[in-house]
Amino acid sequence: MKSTLLSTICALFISIFSFGQTSTEQFETESNGSASFTDNGVIFNIISNVNTYDIQAAYPNTGWNGTASDNRYIDNSGLGNQSAGTSFSIKTTSNLFKVNRFWVYAAAGNGTLGVAGTLTITGKLSGITKFTQTKTTGFTATTGTANGYTLIDLTNLNGQNYSNIVIDQIQITAGGNFQYLALDAFTWVKDSGLVLSANDVKASKKEIKMYPNPTSGPLTIETAENSKFEVYSQSGQLVKTIETRKGVNETDISELPKGVYMVKSSSESYKIIKR
């Protein structure tokens, strides 16, 4: 009986749970040319993979907030800044999130709609691909419909629901003749109570392992090199700094109140429950 109960509790904590807050970023309060934006208290970075992407605010009424035209969005509209395979990501290292939907204007380099192309949507967590799908049809071909924008709905993308998958980065990559991309009305779910599965917590390009999770205080951190970790509360306050050496390090967070904390290194971040 005790074994069964313990297994059930472990399975509960290993699974991902959350208390979600859905938000739609319309970019209307963001600064023109910015490579980041803030929504619902979370800072997102715009990562330019192929071509340069940032907040565009120079062309009023060329965006789409989901129901009407608006003024600001993400795009690669700089002079000569369009090419085949254009790609960008939206990423945060301070929070985990899920994506419900967003709108994309996919066109030729000169902005012409109706050309043949594809969009590949990839969700990643700590650099590990969690899902990837390519949309090949159904793109808006005229500005008379949704101001030229196409809805990318992750609740039903190619017949699959990806809106419940926890990520820290979503990447959009064009194929075919799509060389210009604009993104608006980014609807996502903030999960301040998200807890990663054991496998996700340990997944790291630098092979960092952190356990147990949850913990009453004792915390073991295994690293492949000397590292420095900063512990942040849900409000974003730095509450503790931990320095580790290569190998197994024993530390303790018993002095912190019960709750969910973000433990960040220079390249990775982890959700830890203090119980």
Short structural summary:
The protein has helices at 2-14, 198-202; strands at residues 20-25, 36-39, 42-50, 54-56, 73-75, 87-91, 97-107, 117-125, 128-135, 150-153, 169-176, 180-191, 209-211, 218-223, 227-232, 238-244, 247-252, 259-264, 269-274.
Summarize the topology.
Elements: H1 2-14, E1 20-25, E2 36-39, E3 42-50, E4 54-56, E5 73-75, E6 87-91, E7 97-107, E8 117-125, E9 128-135, E10 150-153, E11 169-176, E12 180-191, H2 198-202, E13 209-211, E14 218-223, E15 227-232, E16 238-244, E17 247-252, E18 259-264, E19 269-274
Antiparallel strand pairs: 1-12, 2-3, 3-6, 4-5, 5-12, 6-11, 7-10, 7-12, 8-9, 8-11, 13-14, 14-17, 15-16, 15-18, 18-19
| Helical proportion, percent range | under 10%
Largest β sheet strand count, sense and barrel closure: 6 strands, antiparallel
What structural category do the secondary elements indicate?
mainly beta
Count of strand segments: 19
Radius of gyration: 21 Å
Which fold does the CATH topology of the largest domain refer to? Jelly Rolls
One letter per element, helices H and strands E, the order comes to HEEEEEEEEEEEEHEEEEEEE
The termini sit apart by 24 Å
CATH architecture of the largest domain: Sandwich
| Whole-number total of structural domains | 2
Shape: elongated
- Percent in strands: 35-45%
In round numbers, the mean pLDDT is 87
* CATH class group of the largest domain: Mainly Beta
Q: How many helical elements?
A: 2
Contiguous runs where pLDDT drops below 50 for at least 5 residues: 1-18, 201-205
